[in-house]
Amino acid sequence: MKASEALLAATRRIDRFDAELLLAHMVGEDRLAMLAGADREVDFAGFEPLIARREAGEPLAYITGHREFWSLDLLVSPAVLIPRPDSETLIDAALAARRDRRPTTILDLGTGSGALLLAALSEWPNARGLGVDASAAALAVARTNAERLGFARRAAFLESDWGAAVRGRFDLIFCNPPYVESAADLSPEVMREPASALFAGPDGLDDYRRIIPQLPGLLTPGGVACIEIGHTQAAAVLALAGAAGMTGIVRHDLAGRDRCLVLQMA
């Protein structure tokens, strides 16, 4: 079957763009190169199981095993939350906050795939970083990404319950914790991602209550922490930061929603 015919058959069942990405993945090319060769013969028998997985609601990134973040090609698996463009707001915020004082030590609490840590190391080539996660499976993904992308010598990883096992202080801290209310009605597709990376108690603040008090002991003098939040949570998390002796500003994502707090000691 020609590629164009395979795509036509797929789009009767799934989104056209998803079908193009899946077929490109199957033939081992990027999407545009695959489309340029739409008259080639492809193995529809090999393509059909990918279509079926997407039709059943499996996230595209878990099917292909890849997700782009900050122009980095990251490996992902069901062990980690899929990196989202909204989280790039934290990198933008850090670049603005550290414009005149480049960090040399970076900590990523809840590193997952390593997305935030590795994006930061790509921006600051003289920095070293530590990615922390409570999941050994997630850390395996992050280590693999660090090795694939050439950051293994500058990135270390540690299994820890947030900052409990972390020693030392850092110029820059990232954290994208779970912040979804336990009763929230999420799409079936999102629900395929690790629940431990999504849900944080009745008000979505349980992990902030544990993380925020740890930050003063983890930051160097003048250091900053960039923390992802749900778009309705800025006031509540800023109150937690104030109780820990910290001040912060809110940064917005591309849709104009509250997405990141930049915190430092008062």
Tell me the name of the CATH class of the largest domain.
Answer: Alpha Beta
Q: Could you say what the CATH topology of the largest domain is called?
A: Rossmann fold
The beta-strand count equals: 9
Overall pLDDT level: 95
**How large is the share of residues in beta strands?**
15-25%
Structural class: alpha/beta
Number of domains: 2
Q: How many helix segments?
A: 10
Strands of the widest sheet, in order across it, are 5-4-3-6-7-9-8
Question: The biggest beta sheet, please?
Answer: 7 strands, mixed
CATH architecture of the largest domain: 3-Layer(aba) Sandwich
Order of helices and strands: HHHHHEEHEHEHEEHEHEE
> Which regions have little confidence, pLDDT < 50, spanning 5+ residues?
none
Q: Assembly state here? A: single chain
CATH homologous superfamily title of the largest domain: Vaccinia Virus protein VP39
Overall outline: elongated
Radius of gyration: 20 Å
In which range does the helix fraction lie? 25-40%
| Cα distance spanning the termini | 65 Å
List the helices and strands and how they pair.
Blueprint: H1 3-10, H2 16-27, H3 31-36, H4 44-55, H5 60-64, E1 66-69, E2 72-75, H6 88-97, E3 105-109, H7 115-123, E4 128-133, H8 136-148, E5 155-159, E6 170-175, H9 206-211, E7 219-228, H10 234-243, E8 246-252, E9 258-265
Parallel strand pairs: 3-4, 3-6, 4-5, 6-7
Antiparallel strand pairs: 1-2, 7-9, 8-9
